[in-house]
Design goal:
- It is a single chain.
- The chain is α/β, with parallel strands linked by helices and 207 residues long.
- It has one domain: HAD superfamily/HAD-like (Rossmann fold), CATH 3.40.50.
- Helix content is 29%, strand content 16%.
- It has five helices and seven strands, in the order ββαβαβαβαββα.
- The chain has a seven-stranded mixed sheet, with helices on both faces.
- β2, α1 and β3 form a beta-alpha-beta unit.
- α1 packs parallel to α5.
Length: 207
């Protein structure tokens, strides 16, 4: 499942791949976000998304949502929650270009459920990304494993990250405590790279 935000534009020169639960919104202990009432933005998320948009980044969401496959909510209910948080992000100045969901259960043996990189591959094709130059932010082992398998540089989100020192160098394990810190880090790391660096040369003039 993918949901495209009609306000987003593929003319943006950079993309960032973000997990949803644990990065955008709080995880529900021992459960899933099955209604808008259970969806809570994490601290500084809207600030982080706005900072990315101000620097001409489009955010793409990649997320396992097995609650649909498990029958805990319908596809339409999931879409309703998604459109609501996309609206909140847009009103705050952020730009989420598309949302990619895997709705399958763990036992369905699909190719899109993380830690497999299927969602990342789809984003690469549809947005003409060079994943080696596209940062991914996640908070769980499965998300980080999927990003690594796809070839993305990863940023780990941990709420206690402020207790640790940043490790220098883009090849180091990068850890942040919220999405605003991740956005600051991404902007700083890629500030000197040429505009449009994610677009593969072979795809830049064709479909």
């Amino acid at each position: 499942m993918s949901i495209r935000d009609g306000s987003a534009s593929n003319r943006h020169h950079r993309c960032v791949l973000l997990n949803r639960d644990g990065v955008i919104n709080r995880r529900v202990p021992s459960g899933h976000v099955t209604s808008w009432e259970r969806f809570q933005f994490l601290p500084r998320v809207l600030d982080g998304l706005r900072l990315l948009a101000e620097n001409r980044y489009t955010a793409l969401i990649v997320s396992n949502q097995p609650c649909v496959g498990e029958g805990l909510l319908s596809a339409n209910e999931l879409e309703s929650i998604t459109r609501r948080f996309l609206l909140e992000v847009a009103l705050s100045g952020g730009n989420i270009g598309q949302v990619y969901y895997c709705r399958h259960r763990e036992g369905d043996r699909c190719a899109c459920r993380m830690p497999l990189p299927g969602l990342f591959v789809r984003a690469r094709v549809e947005h003409r990304l060079i994943l080696e130059n596209t940062y991914s932010v996640g908070d769980s082992r499965s998300e980080l494993a999927a990003a690594a398998a796809a070839g993305c540089p990863t940023i780990t989100m941990r709420r206690d990250a402020f207790l640790e020192r940043y490790v220098s160098g883009v090849q180091a394990a990068l850890t942040v405590s919220n999405l605003f810190e991740a956005a600051q880090l991404i902007v700083a790391l890629q500030r000197e790279r040429p505009v449009g660096f994610e677009v593969a040369p072979s795809l830049a003039t064709g479909k």
